[in-house]
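Cont'd.
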Amino acid sequence: MKARTRFLIGGMLVMSTAGYLMASSARDTAVYYLTPAELEAKLVADPDFRDAPMKIGANVVRGSIVRQPGGRELSFLMTDGTATYPVVYRGVPPDTFTDTEDVEVVVTGRLDSEGTFQATELLAKCASRYESVPGEGGGYEAGTPRYPDPGAGDANSAPAASPIS
Amino acid sequence: MILLGELSLWIALLMTGWAATVSFAGGRLRRPDLVASGERAIYASTVFVALASAGLITALVTHDFSLRYVASYTSANLPFVYTITAFWGGQAGSMLFWCLILAIYAAIAVFSNRRSNRELMPWVTGTVAAVLFFFLLTTALKSNQFARLDFLPPDGRGMNPQLQNPGMAAHPPNLYLGLVATTIPFAFAVAALITRRLDGAWLAAVRRWALVSWFFLTVGIVLGMWWAYVELGWGGYWAWDPVENSSLLPWLTGTAFLHSIMVQEKRGMLKKWNVVLVIATFLLSILGTFITRSGVITSVHSFAQSPVGAWFGTFLLLSIIASSYLVATRLRDLETPVELESMVSREAAFLYNNLLLVGMAFSVLWGTLFPIISEAVRGTKITVGAPFFNAVNVPLGLLLLALTGIGPLIAWRKASTRNLKRQFAVPLTAGVVMAAALLALGMRDGYALMTYSLGAFVIGTIAQEFYKGVNARRRMYGEGAPSAFVRLVSRNRRRYGGYVVHFGVVVLFAGFAGMAFREEFDINLEPGESFTAADPYGDEWRFTSNGVSVYETLNRFTTASALDMQRNGEPQGLLVSEKRQYVDTFGNPTFEPSTEVGILSTWRQDVYLVFVGVTGTETAEVRLTFNPLVMWVWLGGALMAIGGLIVMWPQAERRKAQSGYMASLSPRVAEAEARALEGV
């Protein structure tokens, strides 16, 4: 057998091992990534869907965070404007998790029988963290100087929307 | 100065447009006057991009809050260093920073090739200018950092506290230096394809650039890991986040290229593969920029959705189409007459090394793009997380580690059985001894055992290589061991620098494997209350709360928790973690509170304290973690960087030293020495 053929066989072996690992672990670790509205639609179509592992990307409803004293449990409401779900999370939330400004969260977990999302993982990104999204710009508390970001660069975030201008 | 900066941006844009046009035309029509004009335009645009950058820095330093960019990212009370780093802290500024690096690289590439590679240079200049033109155009039209507010705010918004960290100050520039450097090899590959001059010349010209890119990517990635570890407070340094992945992708293919280039140099094989790797590395670095800025993939690190995303998507697509066309039409020119002779040969080891690195890159790419792919195919977004990436990359990484030890031991072309026996004895013994020792000590984690045994095997290989090299010199010239060592490395920088990088990789892997043994405790402590826990080494730690303190500093209010530490009864000092609320010049809070973790770092492990909050007024809620061998990760990264520096060290000096030295020997001795230094 030529060395080239042998190398190709070896290469195929390595690649198929990698392919197998990818396929099997993708099956085991894949989770749905939905918005609350999409979750609602899925639940209408199939009530058992609540048991599927999923990630939900949504916004934190302002002022909705309730922290349990002493423990590491907190609850809040998440919404995408269409559907809203209560969330319970046990653990240490990241610094970015707050309800005093627009914060996007990605929670991983399942929906319990009462319709509360039991989150095992919580990621948060402040919308104005590294950059503001287009459309952001108004709604800052008066007296706190905050400005729309340059990256947004469209009419929605014109400085006129700022309360102190 | 600020106005001048804005004007310079537009002039630079015109200059690069001109440079691209006349360079391509000059190459096509073989008109040296056009080519020369294109090169002068490159120098000019570098000057103007530098002026534009100077304009933005002036605006930042003088706190000109009428500029949206300045008002959005800085405030009057921001420390000076971070006022400067705000240059690349935001989307718009980082785009300009990217242009600045590319312009400087372009000028260096043009200047250093002013007398060499003349057939290729028009196309190289043209390609780099076209890329720079695209970046400047996107900057000027879609994310202009000189945009003004129509009112003058009293103060800026300030910088996000998590970005006020030395790691974050140094991580982006290094990463950008690495990502942007992939453009020059890409331009050379395009030039070689267009002119069909696909011999070794273009490869020799890009090797150094590929190294520069690799070096800065390595440093940038490790600094990013360090920043995440000390600043984000979740206790780890790598989360397989899409943004992290997108910096790893060009690193993987770039590393593959640095290895496969040796096969083409030595044996003339892999011509096609090398061209494809260079192009893929560039495309992946553009893809990374696209992912980070477009918002197509959700990541906690990314810039928010912005209009530059669509531009990058288009640019990426055009680049893919153009390079695929070039490669497809040049396939026949890339044929090589040389065949692989044996599976047991250095080149076969390199081939497998490439296969593994590209396989890892593919799996990371696949996992990162999975949400997009699944949405396109099945209509629902499905994501894969860290378990997916670990399941694939840990086994592949271990195979790669094994090859790191095997590769240098086998000869080019075809290794003999005698050669194998002689070469493998010591390293294999080292690996087996390590495995036995760890088993005896009670380590049962399979992957960790493999990592440490393979690590010992690789170190055995490296040590043997150094020993043989030093011995050869001692025998031949009667040099003492230390001077033989220094001369060995300095006369074969590429080879022994490479071994230093490999050594760094082993240390890095050892650090990764250490995390298999991490332990985490969530506790609440009243003042004076103690908590006792055993670390992964079995030592007993006692943490006593000193209570919670509240105080005010320069630009923030701080709440802190301090724990007194004892290990096996011996005092280990105080560990402090803080919650900081940053304020602006008027004392108003800016941003959400941020956590500063407390870390006691030793070579054995890090004790990592995160202050979660306060119950009542005095009970501290904390998370305590033992993170074994984290310091090894930073150390491994540093060793890799040092190795990279040794390999990169200016060649001219080395060539002179070596030729002078070699000329003083008779040809036969010189040949013998060369053979001895080859080691096999």
